[in-house]
Amino acid sequence: PGAHVDLLLPSGLVRQYSLHHADGRPGPWRIAVLREPDGRGGSAELHDRVAVGTRLRAAGPRNRFPLLPGQDLLFLAGGIGITPLLPMLAAAERRGSRWRLAYAGRSRASMAFLPELARYGDRVTVAPRDECGRLDLDALLAGTPAGALVYCCGPEPLLQAVRARCEALPGLALHTERFTAAAPVPPAADTADTDFEAVLRRSGRTVPVPAGTSLLRALRGAGVAVLASCEEGTCGTCETTVLEGVPEHRDSLLTPEERAAGDLMLICVSRCLGSRLVLDL
Ligand code: FES
Q1: Counting atoms of ligand 1 from 1, which one is nearest the CA of 234?
Q2: Minimum CA distance residue for ligand 1 atom 3
Q3: Of 41, 127, 152, 273, which one has the fewest beta carbons inside 10 Å?
Q4: Which CATH entry fits the domain spanning 196-279: 3.20.20.330, 3.90.550.10, 3.90.1530.10, 3.10.20.30?
Q5: Quick one: pLDDT at residue 191?
Q6: Ranges under pLDDT 70 in the chain
């Protein structure tokens, strides 16, 4: 539960989609793709150019949203953010956890998976905005016992609203996944780009990375095949293992623990504190 794959689309775009299985057990991968007419083109391409029989490459799965052990769980979904939560509900059932789901959307017609969710009865609150207005997050969180895990996936305003409330309720442990890019993190004021070199341990190459050029761009310019999607440090597709050297993290995805460990970096935005990084490429 919570895992996603990077799909490599025919045009060369790379997009992440959560895996979901109705019963939460391993099996063929299932993804759900909401057509976003005003998006960056990935969902429209999947709807328009991919049909039964089309072969696509995928990378992963990877999981940045794992379901941790917990007796009390509150799931909050906004729109297509329901997708990664579906296998979590099934897992929570199997574990015998106490859980509730509140699922918000524009209208019932726009909300996927309502038939699948009906079997969970009154543990699921379906809240279409055109019928019920906005989710009453204060009431939902106030009714959640201390020590509970809160899993939230949806658009940024929902994540921010839940995050702000959970910060005021220290008994709740919040886990979030966004399906839209977060605002990129500007580099710290005292951080200027400097030249460095990237040593690629597996291929035995050294690639210079000049100031003003991202590590991703420098690698691609040298003909190194690396996957990337958002190119602004928010999706994780370009995550790369660091074998030596100290990365200067400029992404908005890695946790403080991952940053401190220094063995992973997002090469689309992050750079090097020093003159040399050795990467597992
Ligand atoms: S490409 Fe999305 S984080 Fe680097």
Answers
A1: 3
A2: 233
A3: 41
A4: 3.10.20.30
A5: 66
A6: 22-24, 179-191
